[in-house]
């Protein structure tokens, strides 16, 4: 029986993405996509916490569930410090993926026996990933609203919105194509209030024209 495929998202310091991917590949997590991101913390806070630059590498990886889960356990135990970077890694469930991609992952992945070591230390997630797609230049205002609602921080990725013509015509909107995606990991108990606050102040009929969605996180590790 084939295993489910999971998505891992790693947000680490700029320049550490290649080392992270090499480390993951050694642990049977070998399919990656890397993109640049920017943290929302101020330089003063980064200096106090010793977290270096706000520039980030965002690594999106795909792996069999057993390999992904074992990697997270190892990052929290045997591999703690091996990444040589501050950051966060979390695992998301997938409801579908190309058959060919899944087959390649399954073929290259050896069966992983559950390793109980470190399981009690692993942070079992009570969090969600909130994605806010908003106009460029509005991220700081959106993040300020998110922090007022309980968010601790986020990561920004530049993007471009396509296929918006139907949405514009249906709701009499004029939408900007140049976007930023603000990724926020937040506790489930504040998720709905946080999303509602962002939508009320920065929704599609505001200057930010934000679209907000969330998805559950399976497991999470802080590097």
Walk me through the structure.
It is a single chain. The protein has 223 residues and is an alpha+beta fold. It is 31% helix and 32% strand. The protein has seven helices and ten strands. The chain has a ten-stranded antiparallel beta sheet with strand order 5-10-4-1-3-2-7-8-6-9. Helix 5 (139-148) packs across helix 7.
Write the layout of secondary structure elements.
Layout: E1 5-13, H1 17-25, E2 31-39, H2 43-49, E3 55-64, H3 65-76, E4 87-93, H4 99-108, E5 123-124, E6 127-135, H5 139-148, E7 155-160, H6 165-171, E8 178-187, H7 188-202, E9 211-216, E10 219-222
Antiparallel strand pairs: 1-3, 1-4, 2-3, 2-7, 4-10, 5-10, 6-8, 6-9, 7-8
In short:
With 223 residues, the chain is an alpha+beta fold. 31% of the residues lie in helices and 32% in strands. The two termini are 33 Å apart.
User: SSE order, as H and E?
Assistant: EHEHEHEHEEHEHEHEE
Could you state the oligomeric state of the chains shown?
single chain
What is the spatial order of strands in the main beta sheet? Answer: 5-10-4-1-3-2-7-8-6-9
Report low-confidence residues grouped into runs of 5 or more. Answer: 45-52, 117-122
Helix content: 25-40%
Q: Strand share of the residues?
A: 25-35%
Average pLDDT confidence is 86
Number of helices: 7
Our measurement of the CA-to-CA distance between the termini, rounded to an integer number of angstroms, reads 33 Å
- What structural class is derived from the secondary structure elements? alpha+beta
Number of strands: 10
Largest sheet: 10 strands, antiparallel
Question: Looking at the structure, what is the overall shape?
Answer: globular
Query: How large is the radius of gyration?
Result: 18 Å
